[in-house]
Please model this.
Amino acid sequence: MNTTGPTPSKRTGEWPLFEVFIRGQHGLSHRHVGSLHAPDAEMAVKNARDVYTRRNEGVSIWVVEAEAIHASAPGDKEALYDPSNDKVYRHPTFFDVPEEVGHM
Amino acid sequence: MYAQMIQSTGKGVKTLDEMEPEERAFQERINAGGKIEPKDWMPDGYRKNLIRQIGQHAHSEIVGQLPEGNWITRAPTLERKAILLAKVQDEAGHGLYLYCAAETLGITRDEMFEALHEGRMKYSSIFNYPTLTWADMGAVGWLVDGAAIMNQVPLQRTSYGPYARAMVRICKEESFHQRQGFDIMMKMCNGTDAQKKMAQDALNRMWFPSLMMFGPSDKESVHSEQSMAWKIKMNTNDELRQKFVDQTVPQAQYLGLTIPDETLAWNEEKGGYDFAEPDWNEFFDVLKGNGPCNQERLQTRKDAWEEGAWVREGMLAHAAKKRSMKVAAE
Model:
């Protein structure tokens, strides 16, 4: 549990950086749209509304402290994703369905 | 454009054979139309160049609010005021998208502000000209935003992912800016003689500064060649300027306004207009800080930053206090 909350950059005293995710329409997932600085999460949501939804771009906003995001490393790309290349049977097009059977 | 005179490594473009494997893979990815993302390997020159270019672009959006902000309280109708306010707010948003793209390259926002305030980073020369009448709001939207769009549309395909994505957002919003400007011009050109004269005067003053936005010819510039190889510049300055002139002349004719260039003539052979170059000595002088409004613009930025310090600090203190109350309550 995070009891310290976002902290200003030690180097510059800047407001912490938040990544912003917007749900464009009901039924869609939230999508990363950019980032912004704010003193805390509450203000980050308010700022995100002004910066990223001036034209009805969203129905819901998530903000996440940038420091809290863990990402895969670009160098791991092959190790992570190549193994799925040889498993073509995971795609339905791998299997031939006789025409007489119709849509499946 | 919004980024003018960006210098690259200055060394000329390396061939793929001259590159180390890492750089070759990087360049091949760009050549194939791939995107570079923040944590990917990139040459130092690419990183530095992009910081300069995106930073300058961001600063231009922010400083660009000032000449138009000048007219918000004096817009002729409530509707025009609301439109101008929305337009200026968009510019702030565009600046923020771009600062956030630049930050992914490892520079902080405060460092960029500092560089701007100390004159180590620039903003577009165009914003150092004054906006003297309401017709200037028309001319700025029509010409300045029109010129910006010329440059920004191809940049949606730039190689650096966060920059390209910021450009997509910006371009979506930018055409409103140009149209509201043209709309002001149309209104004035259909108005009284005095209004029409005002519109012509705005065009007379804004025409050459708008052409300067694309920067001097860079056909033989090594900086430009490198930026184009990296796909952080998609067209030469001359190509974009020509496109801008070809697009704008018929619009001026529609308005019944005269482009302040006696040499302007259609060239059948090249399928475009011949036109006079702006005064490049003036351009370099404005970049050096000697334009009509350089001092005022920069001072306004510095004042806003310094006088807003207590707000930034106060909000951080408030956030810390809320946090500690929350911890205490747990």
About this structure: The mean pLDDT of chain A is 86. The two ends of chain A are 48 Å apart (CA to CA). The first strand of chain A starts at residue 17 and ends at 23.
